[in-house]
Write a structure and sequence with these properties.
The complex is a heterodimer.
Chain A lengths: L2 E3 L4 E5 L4 E3 L2 E3 L6 E7 L6 E7 L6 E3 L2 E6 L4 E6 L8 E8 L6 E2 L3 E6 L1
Parallel strand pairs in A: 2-12
Antiparallel strand pairs in A: 1-4, 3-9, 5-6, 5-10, 7-8, 8-9, 10-11, 10-12
Chain B lengths: L3 E4 L2 E4 L5 E7 L5 E8 L3 E10 L2 E4 L6 E3 L9 E3 L8 E8 L11 E2 L3 E5 L1
Parallel strand pairs in B: 2-11
Antiparallel strand pairs in B: 1-3, 3-8, 4-5, 4-9, 5-6, 7-8, 9-10, 9-11
Classes of the chains: A mainly beta, B mainly beta.
């Protein structure tokens, strides 16, 4: 069975602080895919990143970076110099190649001015 | 415009009534999914479909029925709505992966259902 754990239910930071959202996953598959989605207050789900199990390179996209470590089954997401617009619920998810995504329960991030 | 659309966006109904939430995608993606989102539970899979006429249960299928007669449509029916089915429902689609690649899930805007 596949499982995703986002232990942080809510995080509150002040603007310009760095913040890391944790994601720990469980799977018996050797090939799998990890995702992060953002859900702003408007409610839509926005895709942020996809990573496959063969690629452990960290990725940086502007202020966002992701740290994938198979040894600890983690796929953490860091926002550098957070902004108010980063306030949202962030979901980590896991899947096999084309099948259903299993989501964590989400982390609500509030960035205060 | 291409995309995935859900209707209705908002629905209020009464206990015991039948409700159908519609989902339409224009990409011809093979996979389609229905998730429900509830506070404290994140997104939970109700049903999914790998292709037309192929459907399978997810984590929380009880009380729901789906069909997929055409690739582009994946309606979700609550045969006799209950208060516990008050939720936000998201439809999603996903391309069939090729090789070691896989596509992300594309979500509709959600349908907020209230059962009184």
């Amino acid at each position: 069975a596949q499982k995703v754990t986002q232990a942080q239910t809510e995080i509150s930071v002040v603007e310009k602080e760095d913040v890391t959202l944790d994601c720990v996953y469980e799977t018996r598959d050797t090939t799998y895919y990890l995702f992060w989605y953002k859900q702003p207050p408007s409610g839509e789900l926005v895709f942020l990143i996809r990573r496959n199990s063969f690629d452990e390179q960290n990725e940086i996209s502007g202020r966002y970076s992701w740290n994938f470590q198979k040894s600890t089954s983690s796929f953490n997401f860091t926002i550098t110099a957070s902004q108010v617009v980063d306030s949202a619920v962030y979901f980590c998810a896991l899947s096999r190649r084309s099948e259903k995504l299993v989501f964590g329960k989400g982390t609500k991030l509030t960035v205060n001015p | 415009d291409a995309g995935i659309t859900q209707s209705p966006r908002y629905k209020i109904t009464e206990t015991g009534r039948q409700v159908t939430l519609m989902c339409h995608q224009t990409w011809s993606h093979s996979y389609m999914f229905w998730y429900r989102q509830d506070l404290g539970h994140g997104l939970r899979l109700i049903y999914y479909s790998a292709a037309a006429d192929i459907t399978d249960k997810g984590e929380v299928p009880d009380g729901y029925v789906v069909s997929r007669s055409k690739t582009e449509n994946f309606p979700l029916t609550l045969e006799s709505a209950t208060r516990s089915q008050t939720s936000v429902y998201f439809c999603a689609s996903r391309k069939l992966g090729q090789g070691t690649n896989t596509g992300e899930l594309f979500f509709g805007e959600g349908s907020r259902l209230t059962v009184l």
